[in-house]
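About this split. The held-out portion is used to measure sequence recovery: a designer receives only the structure tokens and must propose an amino acid at every position. Recovery is the fraction of positions where the proposal matches the reference. Here is one held-out target exactly as it appears in the evaluation file.
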């Protein structure tokens, strides 16, 4: 069984580690690029969002590389995500690929369902092997996310722009190649130490800008034209709630125990939005309300045609919390020069707002 997966940030590193541990053969398509997007746009219904198009492009590339089973994330609720697997499977069959789609319904079956899917893909590996593989993959996720949090801080104040990104890329490669827990621990300590030693502008007082929005476009740099790195070049420190390791911890472990990490966010949004509208729309509104006094501004990332985020986008200007919000709609028409112009103008607005506030004090 040759299993192919789509990309979403660096999650492939963890899935690859799990697959290697239980003897599976994982097909990882090239990291998202223009070809994957072009394939997805060519064969997708026009009105569907960029997460659908990019993941479809990845799945086509995985099928071209010989995958006979394709693993995708699914769910239930108001968002169209629950329909993706069936539609993408039909498109692939229409293109002549004899593949089988397996959907991870994490939100419905939690940890037991997650492990059961990997048991199905493991060529008969024992349950202790499956659980051990999952634990090792989760450890890699945690290591990557801890390093990335440091990268987000360093980008804003580094003297030579791009240094933190270069270290992060090397850290991801080292984590991908690590075969044991001791190596992972050493890599994490080593790269965090290297990041702390990066020459910095000690006089800088970077703006704090939060990133919120739909899960996929927040985590997949290709879909948002690497907005976090571009903000770092402008001297902005990015704060982001969404990390795969955090999502995994709450979705698979704490939520089944009755601990809901979104309850605080939903409560904050309740004066303006009183129910789930699908996807991450409810959370996007709550993020603005919760962090209005902490952040200088908020970047709201949304796939074009995403109804939950359209609801959130229209509510945000009406909240009493005074924090500037820039919504960026992500699709194949989003061009980097236009996005950079908007980011520069937004950062300039935030700097003027901070200076005016300081002058008043």
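Reference sequence for scoring:
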């Amino acid at each position: 069984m040759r299993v192919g997966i789509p990309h979403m940030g660096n999650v492939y590193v963890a899935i690859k580690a799990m697959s290697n541990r239980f003897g599976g053969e994982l097909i990882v398509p090239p990291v998202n690029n223009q070809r994957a997007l072009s394939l997805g746009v060519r064969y997708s219904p026009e009105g569907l969002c960029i997460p659908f198009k990019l993941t479809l492009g990845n799945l086509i590339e995985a099928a071209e590389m010989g995958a006979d089973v394709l693993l995708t994330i699914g769910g239930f609720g108001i968002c169209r995500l629950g329909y993706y697997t069936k539609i993408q499977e039909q498109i692939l069959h229409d293109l002549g690929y004899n593949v089988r789609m397996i959907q991870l319904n994490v939100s419905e079956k939690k940890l037991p369902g997650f492990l059961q899917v990997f048991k199905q893909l493991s060529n008969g590996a024992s349950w202790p092997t499956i659980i051990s593989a999952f634990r090792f993959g989760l450890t890699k996720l945690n290591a990557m996310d801890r390093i990335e949090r440091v990268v987000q801080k360093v980008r804003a104040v580094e003297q030579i722009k791009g240094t933190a990104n270069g270290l992060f890329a090397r850290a991801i490669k080292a984590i991908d190649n690590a075969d044991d827990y001791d190596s992972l621990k050493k890599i994490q300590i080593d790269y965090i130490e290297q990041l702390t030693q990066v020459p910095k502008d000690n006089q800088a007082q970077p703006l704090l800008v939060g990133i919120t929005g739909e899960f996929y476009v927040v985590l997949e740099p290709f879909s948002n034209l690497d907005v976090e790195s571009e903000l770092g070049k402008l001297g902005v420190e990015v704060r982001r709630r969404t990390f795969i390791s955090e999502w995994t911890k709450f979705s698979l472990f704490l939520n089944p125990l009755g601990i809901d990490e979104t309850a605080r966010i939903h409560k904050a949004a309740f004066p303006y939005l009183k129910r789930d509208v699908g996807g991450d729309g409810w959370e996007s509104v709550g993020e603005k309300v919760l962090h209005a006094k902490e952040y200088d501004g908020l970047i709201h990332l949304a796939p074009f045609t995403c109804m939950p985020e359209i609801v959130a986008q229209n509510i945000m200007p009406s909240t009493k919390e005074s924090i500037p919000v820039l919504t960026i709609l992500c699709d194949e028409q989003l061009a980097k020069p236009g996005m950079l112009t908007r980011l520069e103008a937004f950062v300039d607005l935030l700097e003027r707002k901070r200076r005016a506030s300081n002058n008043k004090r």
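Annotator remark: The chain has three domains: 2-124, 134-155+157-202, 206-361.
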